[in-house]
Amino acid sequence: MVALALAFSASPALAATIEVTIDKLVFSPANIEAKVGDTIEWTNNDVIAHTATVKGGWEVAIPPKSKGRIIVKTAGAVDYFCRFHPNMKGRLEVSP
Amino acid sequence: MYIRSIATLAALLLVSAAPYAQAAEKPTDPQIAHIAYTAGVIDIEAAKQAIKDSKNKEVVDFAKDMERDHEAVNKQALDLLKKLKVKPEDNATSQALTKAAKEERAKLAKLKGADFDKAYIENEVAYHKQVNGALETLLIPSASNAELKSLLETGLKIFQGHQQHAEHVAGMLK
Ligand SMILES: [Cu+2]
pTM for this one? Predict the structure, then answer.
């Protein structure tokens, strides 16, 4: 019983969706925290396309007036930016 | 160097401002709108040339980004002007920009391969730098309509991003 209860409590909580808004070339919030398995969803309110790109890593396309999303798979902190407008920057911290 | 013929946009703006010096020091909103729109059209034309003539994937991708962004911004500008009932007004600065751009395109048309790529990207860096300088120091401060000013400010952020993007591509071509 105890083992079962432990196993149950150790199972991952429901994955969350963390929302980031893009307005006038700004990721907001700029810094986000997530857990492995969570979804990050970017909503682009601009009329131009953006990306969320990790150098040497993943990239999410975020079309204008649309959304882009990714499920985070690995723990760690990464800086990301928009490949089309490198002056747009964000940071993501993922815990296990 | 490739933009030598353009001189600086700021200088052009000063020259063009001279005829209005008595009446007004600053360009009017209809003139600002025309200059901003023209600057966008020029970069779209340059992008089309690069998409057609370059064989380098990075350069063509960059050019497609420029075409897409500037078309989106110019469309937004036209929508705003319609809403504000502002009619863009042709002016000496727009004309000088268009003339310089035509010369630049003719120059690029004579180049091929890596020479073309390098010249196009270097001009993109320089051109965005100039447009951004003009936006920052003259066009944005001179705009009197708040919505036009806000659109120009967003445009500046976009074009600053383009400048960084162009600098990155230029670095890769070396
Ligand atoms: Cu972007």
Answer: 0.85
